[in-house]
Amino acid sequence: MSRDVTTLLHAWADGDDAALDQLLPLVETELRRLARGYLRRERHGHTLQPTALVNEAFMRILDAKNLRWNDRSHFMSIAARLMRRVLVDHARARTSQKRAFDTADVAFEAAVATSDTTSLNVIAVDRALEALAAVDPRRARVVELRFFGGLSVEETADVLHLSTDTIKRDWRLAKVWLLRELGGAPA
């Protein structure tokens, strides 16, 4: 299936619009799983549903007409990043519309360790993740895929073409770095 997705991505990038129609059913389930992973980390009662998040991310993918897809993993990685951007944009718009919006900051580790996601401040985590990306882009991608995307260690290793041991190490180190950045651990 991965080969089929890669072939269809290349055909679509070369202007074959019919390839897009064949591609969507092949990636839809995985995109919805990614969206559910992202939304698990959102506050209770979030207005975006997985389908809406997938649709918005896919609309942004369609806008990137000049993007050359390497393979299925590259596509899923870009989709995960775009879903994160959609959620951050949504949170920023909500915050600007409602100045009284009360989102308590939660330490990254607490958000990871518990299923209580009602107080996760997506904007603060996004800023911290951007700061991490500036110093260590690979670890930032690991966090993005694992924390926001809900991917397992093995799935993350597959997407990033790294060993599971490397993903585990990057995950541990990134969590410590983010904890410090978010003020949840001493420097």
General shape: globular
| Total beta-strand segments | 0
State the helicity in percent bands.
Answer: over 70%
Count of helix runs: 9
Unreliable sequence segments: 99-107, 112-119
Q: Please summarize the sheet with the most strands.
A: none
Structural class: mainly alpha
The proportion of strand residues reads under 5%
Number of domains: 1
The average pLDDT score comes to 79
Rg result: 17 Å
Order of SSEs: HHHHHHHHH
Q: What is the terminal separation in angstroms?
A: 45 Å
Reconstruct the topology from this structure.
Layout: H1 2-13, H2 17-40, H3 50-63, H4 72-97, H5 108-113, H6 122-135, H7 137-148, H8 153-160, H9 164-181
Helix pairs in contact: 1-2, 2-3, 2-4, 3-4, 4-7, 6-7, 6-9, 7-9, 8-9
Description:
The protein is mostly helical and 187 residues long. The protein has one domain (2-181). The protein has nine helices and no strands. The chain has helices at residues 2-13, 17-40, 50-63, 72-97, 108-113, 122-135, 137-148, 153-160, 164-181. The longest helix is centred in the middle third of the chain and has 26 residues, at 72-97. Mean pLDDT is 79; it is low at 99-107 and 112-119.
Task: From the structure above, extract its key features.
mainly alpha; 9 helices; about 70% helix
